[in-house]
Write a structure and sequence with these properties.
The complex is a heterodimer of chains A (about 375) and B (about 500). By secondary structure, chain A is α+β, with helices and mostly antiparallel strands. Helices cover about 55% and strands about 15% of the residues of chain A. Chain B folds into two domains: about 350 residues, Butyryl-CoA Dehydrogenase, subunit A, domain 3 (Up-down Bundle), CATH 1.20.140; about 120 residues, Butyryl-CoA Dehydrogenase, subunit A, domain 2. In chain B, helix 4 runs parallel beside helix 6 and helix 11 runs parallel beside helix 16. Classes of the chains: A alpha+beta (about 375), B alpha+beta (about 500).
Chain lengths: ~375, ~500
C-alpha cells in the first residue's frame, strides 16, 4: 500500500507478508475444505501471538493501538495468500469497534488481559447482515431485571470459534434494535455445525439458537443501528483492503502463469488479448491500492465526510475485486478452475467479502443518502 | 421494387442476410414434429428435476466436498433408467431419436437446478456428437449399440470426448495453433491399427464413460493435417485413468485424466485418420478444422444452453429470496431497484436462449442436424416402425457406402460459408450464454447478501458452476476470436487471426 511510511508500519507489513507466505500458503488448499478439512488453528494461534489480531485495539486495552491504515496494510498482505484469516480479523475488529463506540472497552481490556487462546479473545458477530435492512435479530426478553435472548441468529461469523458473540436483538414488535454480548458457552445457546459457505471457509459461520440466553447490553436500548453504521463505515475500508489483497494475489498468479505457459508456440504473455486482460487487472488493482490508501488517510485524519469516502472506496474496490478475480481464473483457463491453485478460491473469496455489512446494491443507496444528508 | 439479382447482391453484403436470421430461413423447412418433441423434452426435464435432480443437488455438491474422489454412479444409473442416454440417439441407431436441437432446451432445464448433473447427461452427447461428426457409420452403429444395450441391462454406457492435453488447451481446438503448440498425444500407425501414447486432461465424465472419443495425431510435427480420431473402450490394454481433478464447481461431474501407454487400437475402431481425410475434397488441415467446427458448432450451442440454465437458476433463486424476504420494512420484490435487477437477469436469460436457439437453427440448415431435419427423412426416421428401420439401416450403415455418402453430404457438400455460419453462431451462443450465467449468478449474490453465501440456497453453487462454462469448449477468448474470424472480419482480405 502506498501509505506504508514509518518504520513500525514497514516492519508490520513485512511480518504480515512473511507470515502469509510462511503459514498460510501451504495449508490453504486443505483448510479451504473446512469443515471437511482441518481448521487452521495453528496459524490462527500464531497470528494471535504475533498480535495481528490486536493491531487496532487501543494500547490502554492491551492492544498495539495502531490506526486503520495499519490494519488495512496487514489485511492486504495476509489476503494476498489467503483471505480467511483476514476475514477473521475483520469480524473481530468490527465487533471490537462496536464495543469501543458503545463505551464497553473494559470488556475488551479484560479479554485481552486474560485470554490464553484466540477463542478467548475473538468476538463473533453477524458480519454479513445489516439488521436494519434484513431484520434478523434475536428476541429480547426479561428474566427478572436481566435481559435474556431467544430465537435465532443466522450466519454468526466465528460463532464456532469465539466464546463471546455480539448479536442484535429487539423486543417483540420493536423495529429499533440493540446489540448484546452473549457468552456462547452457556447451555441456552445452541450452535449449529459450520455453515457450508461460498468463500473464506476458514472464517466459519454458524447459526445459533438462543433459549433465554443471558446477555449483556452493549450501548443503549435501540442504539444498535447507530453503532452498526459507525463501525461499518470504519471497517468497510478494512474490507476493501481484504479485496485489494485478494486482487493482488490473483494478478500475481495470473502474470506468473502467463509468463510460463505457452500457447501457439509462444508464451501466453506474448498474446495481445492476454496482455489486455492482465493490464485491465493491473489497472483495477493500482486504482484500488490508491483508493484504499486515500480512504485510510481520510479516516485516520478525520477528514470531513470520511464516511462517504470510505463507503465509496469499499463499493468500488470490492466490485473491482470481483472482476479481477473472475479474470484471474480465466487467465489460467482450466488450471485456474482447479483447487490446486489459489485462483478459484480468490474468485469465491472476493465475492464473499463483497457481501460484508449488508446487501451490495443498498450500500450504493446508503452512499447517496449520506451525500444528500 | 428490386430485381432478384439486386436482392441477392444486397443481402450478400456484410452482415450477410443468411447469417442474420437463421430462424426465419429455417422455420418453413423445419418439421412441425420438432416443436412437439421439444415441448415433451422440456416437460420430461422438469419432471426429472422434480423427482431426481432438485432433491439431490445440494447433497451431491456437499458429498463431493467431503469426498472429492466420489463418483456419482448412483445418479448416472438413475439417468440411465430414465432413458436419458439414448434419448437423442437417432432411431436408426437404436435410440429414441428425439430431434437433436431439443437437447439444448433439456439441458437448460436441468442446469437451472444443477449444472453438474446436466453435465453428467449432456457431456455424453458431446462424445456422441464427436462420433457422429466422423460419419464413420460402422463405428457409430457399434458404439450406439453399446449405449442402447447399457440402457437395457442397467449398466450405463457413456461416451466422452478426450481432447484437451496437459500442454494444449486452446491449441488443440484451432488448426492455426496446432502445429505451433505442444501437442503430445501420438498415434503411430502400425499393422492393423494405431499405437497411442500420451495423456488427456480435464475430460468430463472420463471416469464414468465406457467409450472415449480420442483426438490423437499421427505426426506431432504437423498435427493439423494428421488427425487420428479413435473410439477407445475403457478396458483397452494400455489405457488407464489418472487423477480426478478437484474443481471449484460442477463437482458432481468428474474431470478426468486419461493415460495411453503404448495402447493398441485396432482399425475397426479408427473413426478417422489421414488416409480417410485424403479422400475428402478439402485439404487434410481444412478437414481437421471442419471436423472440429462441426462438433463445436453443435456442442457450443449446448454450452450456451448450460449458461442460460445456470443464469436461470441464479435468477430463480434470487426471485424466490426476494419474494420471501423483507428488506427495510417491505418485501424485497417490491423494491424498484430489486425489480430492475431481476428484470436485467431475466433479460440476460432470454437473450442467451435466443442465441443458442439461433445456433440450433444454423446447425439444422447447414450443420450436423441437416440430414435428420429434411422433412421426409425426419418423418421416416421418427415414425417408421423400428423393425423396418432395423432391417434397412444396419446393412447400409455397416457398408462403406454409408460412410461415403454421409461424408459426401456433411463434409464435401458443406460450404465454407456454412461452416463459418454454424461455427460463428456456436461461439456466439457459447459466449453469450456463459457470460450471462456468471453475470446472473453474481447478481443473485448481490441481491441475496448473507443468504446467497450459504450453499443451501444454491445461488453460490450456480456461480461456482458457471465459471467453468466460460472456460471449457474453448475459452470465451478463443470463442470471441472464432466469432470474429467466422462472422466478423472475414470479408476483409487483410484480416488474419492467431498471427498476433
Amino acid at each position: 500500500m502506498p501509505l506504508v511510511q514509518d518504520a513500525e508500519m514497514q516492519m508490520l507489513a513485512r511480518a504480515a507478508a512473511e507470515f502469509a507466505s510462511g503459514e498460510l500458503i501451504d495449508c490453504r488448499q486443505e483448510t479451504d475444505r473446512f469443515p471437511f478439512g482441518p481448521f487452521f488453528a495453528v496459524a490462527l494461534e500464531k497470528a494471535y501471538n504475533l498480535d495481528f489480531l490486536h493491531v487496532t485495539l487501543p494500547v490502554t486495552m492491551g492492544g498495539i493501538g495502531l490506526n486503520t491504515t495499519a490494519l488495512c496494510m496487514v489485511l492486504d498482505k495476509l489476503c494476498q495468500e489467503d483471505a480467511s484469516l483476514g476475514a477473521i480479523i475483520l469480524t473481530h475488529c468490527f465487533a471490537q469497534e462496536i464495543l469501543i463506540q458503545a463505551g464497553a472497552g473494559e470488556i475488551l481490556k479484560n479479554r485481552a488481559a486474560c485470554a490464553e487462546k484466540p477463542e478467548n479473545f475473538l468476538l463473533a458477530c453477524p458480519l454479513f447482515n445489516n439488521p436494519s435492512e434484513i431484520h434478523h435479530v434475536a428476541r429480547l426478553e426479561k428474566k427478572g431485571d436481566r435481559p435474556v435472548l431467544s430465537g435465532r441468529i443466522d450466519y454468526l461469523v466465528l460463532g464456532g470459534v469465539a466464546d463471546l458473540a455480539l448479536v442484535p436483538a429487539a423486543g417483540q414488535g420493536q423495529t429499533s434494535w440493540t446489540y448484546y454480548l452473549v457468552d456462547l458457552r452457556q447451555s441456552s445457546a445452541s450452535i449449529s455445525k459450520p455453515v457450508l459457505s461460498h468463500g473464506i471457509r476458514c472464517c466459519p459461520a454458524v447459526d445459533i439458537e438462543f433459549q433465554k440466553a443471558e446477555a449483556v447490553l452493549v450501548g443503549f436500548d435501540g442504539g444498535g443501528h447507530a453503532l452498526f453504521k459507525a463501525a461499518a463505515a470504519k471497517l468497510s475500508v478494512a474490507a476493501a483492503a481484504i479485496s485489494t489483497g485478494i486482487m493482488k494475489g490473483s494478478f500475481r498468479e495470473a502474470l506468473t502463469y502467463a509468463k510460463e505457459r505457452e500457447q501457439g508456440g509462444r508464451r501466453l504473455l506474448g498474446w495481445s488479448d492476454m496482455q489486455k486482460m492482465l493490464s485491465d487487472m493491473a489497472v483495477h488493482l493500482e486504482i484500488a491500492d490508491m483508493v484504499v490508501a486515500e480512504a485510510c488517510r481520510c479516516l485516520d485524519q478525520g477528514v470531513k465526510d470520511w464516511e462517504q469516502k470510505a463507503l465509496a472506496a469499499a463499493i468500488h474496490v470490492q466490485e473491482a475485486a470481483v472482476q479481477v478475480t473472475t479474470d484471474g481464473v480465466q487467465a489460467l483457463g482450466g488450471v485456474g478452475y482447479m483447487q490446486d491453485f489459489g485462483q478459484e478460491k480468490r474468485f469465491r473469496d472476493a465475492k464473499h467479502i463483497q457481501a460484508c455489512f449488508g446487501l451490495t446494491p443498498l450500500k450504493r443507496i446508503r452512499l447517496l443518502e449520506q451525500i444528500i444528508a | 421494387m428490386l430485381r432478384t439479382s439486386d436482392v441477392k447482391a444486397y443481402c450478400e453484403r456484410e452482415p450477410q442476410f443468411d447469417d442474420m436470421i437463421c430462424s426465419l430461413r429455417a422455420i418453413s423447412k423445419q418439421p412441425k414434429g420438432m416443436l412437439k418433441e421439444t415441448r415433451e423434452v422440456v416437460a420430461l426435464a422438469r419432471k426429472f428435476n422434480d423427482r431426481v435432480v432438485r432433491p439431490y443437488t445440494a447433497e451431491l455438491d456437499r458429498k463431493m466436498q467431503e469426498d472429492p474422489d466420489y463418483l456419482p454412479r448412483d445418479f448416472v444409473e438413475e439417468a440411465n433408467r430414465w432413458g436419458l442416454y439414448t434419448l437423442w440417439i437417432p432411431r436408426i441407431f437404436g435410440g429414441k431419436g428425439y430431434s437433436l436441437p431439443s437437447i439444448c432446451h433439456f439441458l437448460e432445464e436441468i442446469t437451472s437446478v444443477c449444472a453438474a448433473m446436466a453435465n453428467l447427461i449432456g457431456v455424453h452427447y458431446l462424445g456422441v456428437a464427436t462420433l457422429i461428426a466422423t460419419w464413420n457409420t460402422n463405428i457409430i452403429q457399434r458404439v450406439f449399440n453399446d449405449v442402447v444395450e447399457g440402457e437395457k441391462n442397467g449398466k450405463p454406457c457413456l461416451v466422452s470426448l478426450a481432447l484437451t492435453e496437459p500442454g494444449a488447451g486452446t491449441d488443440i481446438e484451432e488448426t492455426d495453433l496446432m502445429d505451433r503448440g505442444n501437442i503430445t498425444c501420438h498415434a503411430r500407425k502400425v499393422d492393423g491399427g494405431y499405437r497411442v501414447n500420451g495423456s488427456k486432461v480435464f475430460i468430463s465424465n472420463g471416469h464414468l464413460s465406457t467409450w472415449h472419443m480420442l483426438f490423437s495425431f499421427a505426426d506431432l510435427g504437423k498435427p493439423s493435417s494428421n488427425l487420428v480420431m479413435l473410439a477407445i473402450k475403457t478396458e483397452t490394454e494400455g489405457f488407464s485413468f489418472g487423477r480426478k481433478e478437484h474443481k471449484m464447481g460442477q463437482k458432481g461431474c468428474p474431470a478426468s485424466e486419461l493415460r495411453f501407454d503404448d495402447c493398441f487400437i485396432p482399425d475397426s475402431v479408427v473413426c478417422f485418420d489421414p488416409a480417410q481425410a485424403s479422400k475428402l475434397a478439402r485439404t487434410r488441415t481444412d478437414t481437421t478444422m471442419q471436423l472440429i467446427d462441426y462438433v463445436f458448432s453443435a456442442s457450443r450451442a449446448g454450452v450456451g444452453a448450460f449458461g442460460t440454465g445456470v443464469a436461470r437458476g441464479a435468477y430463480e433463486a434470487a426471485l424466490k429470496f426476494a419474494s420471501e424476504t423483507e428488506v427495510c420494512g417491505k418485501q424485497l420484490i417490491n423494491h424498484e431497484w430489486a425489480q430492475c435487477m431481476l428484470a436485467e437477469m431475466n433479460k440476460n436469460i432470454i437473450g442467451a436462449r435466443n442465441t443458442y436457439v439461433e445456433s440450433n437453427y444454423a446447425n439444422g440448415l447447414d450443420g450436423m442436424y441437416k440430414t435428420l431435419q429434411v422433412k421426409p427423412i425426419y418423418y421416416l426416421v421418427r415414425y417408421a416402425p423400428a423393425v423396418v428401420l432395423k432391417k434397412l439401416v444396419p446393412p447400409f450403415m455397416e457398408s462403406r457406402l454409408g460412410t461415403w455418402l454421409m461424408r459426401k453430404i456433411h463434409c464435401d457438400w458443406q460450404t465454407d460459408a456454412e461452416i463459418e455460419r454454424t461455427s460463428g453462431l456456436g461461439s456466439l451462443a457459447k459466449i453469450t450464454g456463459t457470460d450471462a450465467g456468471v453475470k446472473n449468478a453474481q447478481m443473485a449474490l448481490d441481491l441475496m447478501g448473507q443468504a446467497g453465501l450459504r450453499q443451501e440456497w444454491i445461488a453460490e453453487k450456480h456461480l461456482r458452476d458457471a465459471k467453468l462454462m466460460q472456460i471449457y469448449e474453448g475459452t470465451n477468448q478463443l470463442n470471441r476470436l472464432n466469432l470474429f474470424k467466422c462472422l466478423g472480419g472475414r470479408h476483409l482480405p487483410q484480416m488474419s487471426v492467431f498471427t498476433d
